[in-house]
Amino acid sequence: MSATTKPSRREQRAQAQHFIDTLEGTAFPNSKRIYIEGSQPDIRIPMREIQLSQTLIGGSKDNPQFEENEAVPVYDTSWPIW
Fold first, then answer.
1. H/E/C letters for each residue in the chain?
2. Least crowded by CB within 10 Å, which of 26, 34, 50, 75?
């Protein structure tokens, strides 16, 4: 059997810091960024419009019938606003 050594606390901290330093944001699948205008023309609310998949409503295995679903807007907190 080969014994594996546990990284030291210093190595664990270095690995954690490397992870944080190289962390990147990724795009959300099936969504796009939109803005909803507020009560003032210069106020825009960041939203994310999420496209939903179709819903199976019937049919057969060889010929399924699907129904489209509307996109759902949700408040987007992923980016700073300024």
1. CCCCCCCCHHHHHHHHHHHHHCCCCCCCCCEEEEEEECCCCCCEEEEEEECCCCEEEEECCCCEEEECCCCEEEECCCCCCC
2. 26
Closest CA to 75 of 23, 38, 26, 24: 38
Q: Report whether 53 contacts 31 (CB < 8 A).
A: no
Range of the domain at 82: 28-82
Residue 5 lies in a domain: no
Quote the pTM value. 0.55
- Specify if 70 maps to a domain: yes
